[in-house]
Amino acid sequence: EAQVTQNPRYLITVTGKKLTVTCSQNMNHEYMSWYRQDPGLGLRQIYYSMNVEVTDKGDVPEGYKVSRKEKRNFPLILESPSPNQTSLYFCASRGQVGLTEAFFGQGTRLTVV
Amino acid sequence: GIQVEQSPPDLILQEGANSTLRCNFSDSVNNLQWFHQNPWGQLINLFYIPSGTKQNGRLSATTVATERYSLLYISSSQTTDSGVYFCAGAQKLVFGQGTRLTINP
Predict the structure, then answer these.
(1) Does B39 have pLDDT greater than 90?
(2) Nearest to A55 by CA among A38, A36, A79, A71
(3) Cβ partners under 8 Å of residue B57, min gap 6
(4) Of B33, B35, B41, which has the smallest distance from its Cβ to A109's Cβ?
(5) Per-residue model confidence (pLDDT) at position A60
(6) Where are the beta strands (DSSP E) in B1-105?
(7) What is the percentage of chain B residues whose pLDDT exceeds 90?
(8) B31 contact A CB<8A
(9) How far is B89 from chain A (nearest CA, A)?
(10) pLDDT confidence of residue A97
């Protein structure tokens, strides 16, 4: 089954404790991206990757890091989480930028206290 | 950057009613999608519809790319249709603010 898998689904952590949210897709897609969803602000892109070892900032990259060492994986790293990073996070993938359907993971609900 | 406007922002209907949701883009897009966000927060793909019309059961969608808008039709609404409906498009997959649909029994 074609899917995008995020882990964990839920996470409560403390300010400053580094964490990683994993994302994996099994569709051999080149393009992957991360979004955060906040009430009143909608879904905003954090980072994207057009292929292995190629990443770039989205609209709200501050406080986040990403890496793309393998085509299937695109982890989101919060080196020093802060309460304003409490949000619902989504990973997405698609075959080619702008040309194909995007698929989203199940979401990760992160709370930073 | 590209702007996406969805209307109406909120819609409350009785079970069995029909509805039309609209999505306007400030510039042309070639990858318009419709999603349903269920009460558990998951984004469910409804349609990938850069142009033309598609149907899937009680749902259908039409995109008029030259006029930069898309419509999502829901017929014979059920309570399970409740949730937020998003359209999105463009290279960075820009999202609209969504339409919150509530179907009352």
Answers:
(1) no
(2) A71
(3) none
(4) B41
(5) 96
(6) 4-7, 10-14, 19-25, 33-37, 43-48, 52-56, 59-64, 69-74, 83-89, 94-95, 99-104
(7) 88
(8) yes
(9) 8
(10) 65
B17 CA to chain A: closest CA distance, Å?
27
Residues of chain A found within 8 Å of residue B93, distances taken between Cβ atoms: 33, 45, 92, 102
Token code pair at residue B100:
């919150």
A32-71 residues touching B, CB cutoff 8 A: 33, 35, 42-43, 45, 48, 58-59
Q: Which two tokens stand for residue A47?
A: 């980072």
Q: Name every chain A residue with its beta carbon within 8 A of the beta carbon of B43.
A: 90, 104, 107
**What is the torsional sign of CA A80, A84, A88, A90?**
negative
DSSP characters for A12-79?
EE-TT--EEEEEEESS--SEEEEEEEETTTEEEEEEEEEETTEEEE-S--TT-EE--SSTTB--EEES
Each residue's pLDDT expressed in tens, for chain A with a length of 113 residues: 889 999 999 999 999 999 999 999 999 999 999 999 999 888 999 999 999 999 999 999 999 999 999 999 999 999 999 999 999 999 999 987 667 899 999 999 999 99
Task: Identify the band that residue B30 occupies on the pLDDT scale cut at 50, 70 and 90.
Answer: confident
Q: What is the pLDDT of residue A1?
A: 81
Instruction: Mark yes or no for CB contact B92/A107 under 8 Å.
Output: no
Q: Which residues of A touch B9 (CB under 8 A)?
A: none
Q: Which amino acid is at A17?
A: K
